[in-house]
Structures are given as C-alpha cells and as structure tokens.
Amino acid sequence: MTNDRQHSAPQPIPQHVTSERLVIRPTTRADAPYLRQWWNNPAIMGPSGSGDGMQNYDETDMDNWFCRHVDGRTEARHFVICLRDADETPIGEFYIACDDRPGCVTFSIAIGETTLWGQGFATEAVLAYADAVFKSGCCGALRLDVPVSNERALHMAQSLGFQVEHVWANGLKRTMILTRDALELRRASLHERS
C-alpha cells in the first residue's frame, strides 16, 4: 500500500519579528552582558519559576551557554526582545523550545528591564511572535508554562486568549495554550467592545 499524501517539511520558526515598539531578533554574543545581568537577578528570574534566579552566571558560564545554544545554529531558538529604536536596545528574552506535540511550540519570555514592567512589552512581544508563527504556518499553537504564583503572566496570557490546558501535578505551574483560532476569537471580541 502506498501513501499518496504529500508530507511537507515543517516551516522554520520566524527569526525576525517586529511590532510597533519592538524587534525580536536572534541572540548574539553581544547580548551576553544583558542576559547575564537578567539571569543573575532573582527579581527577574523568580517570577518565571526559576526560584531565586539562575544566579552566579560568570563569563565562563555565559561562554558555555552560547556554545550550547547559539553558536553555529542555522535556526535560532533564543531571541532578544529589543526596543525598536536606533540602537535596538535589549529589554528581554524570548525562548522557543521544540515541542513533541505536532503543530506546536513551547516558549518562555522575560522582560529583563524591570523599569519597563507593566507597560505591555511582554504582551506586545507575545502577540507579535504569535502572529508571525501562525502566519508562517510553522505551527498552529503556542504553549507557555506559567507559575501559578505569577499573576501578571497569567493575566497577560488570558488577555491574549491563552487557555489553561493542564495544571502540573505539583500544582506549581499551569500549561497555557494559544491556538490561531483562539487568538482570532479574542481579537474579534476586543474589536466588538471598541
């Protein structure tokens, strides 16, 4: 028996995404000082579920991380969120993980510049990247693991149309899912209100 169905190769994840105020681009070694500062700050890493932060990343740790996750890759999985200004000032990070479920990617996000918290940058970054992912056809859903203690992240995810897919067995995190259809429904309901 032959299979006449054509199997297309998965589309690569978007590598450069822009929005009104942001640029999401692949991480480079020039970003190391920003990442190191953010990763060593428990105020930034704690809400992501990293406990008291990764802390004590030194130059050797950063070099090792870049060797494992950035150097020599043809397709980036770690991105820096930058202001859309002349210097493309880094303000946060965006990480895409491969997901073993077909048609889906899991991601994490952190705005590392705490002075910019509460100004909608994370929401804008997630929305811009979701639009790019769905438009590219590389997947039909995004997943985000959110600590139940991070009320800001839960609110942001729900405001974009993410729904709780399941609660972790230990009760500490919720896996939230956003499909293309859920995002469009959320946009339509927001449009009706305005």
Radius of gyration: 17 Å
Helix percent reads: 25-40%
Any guess at the CATH architecture?
3-Layer(aba) Sandwich
Number of domains in the coordinates? 1
Total strands: the figure is 8
- The rounded distance between the terminal residues' Cα atoms is 55 Å
Q: Looking at the structure, what is the overall shape?
A: globular
Description of the molecule:
This protein has 194 residues and is of the alpha+beta class. The protein contains 6 helices and 8 strands; from the N terminus they run ββαααβββαβαββα. The longest helix is centred in the middle third of the chain and has 16 residues, at 121-136. Residues 1-9 have low confidence and may be disordered.
Offer a concise description of the structure.
The chain is of the alpha+beta class.
Quick tags:
8 strands; 8-stranded mixed sheet; 194 residues; globular; Aminopeptidase; alpha+beta
Topology readout:
Elements: E1 17-18, E2 22-26, H1 32-39, H2 42-45, H3 59-69, E3 78-83, E4 90-98, E5 104-111, H4 121-136, E6 141-147, H5 151-160, E7 163-167, E8 173-179, H6 180-193
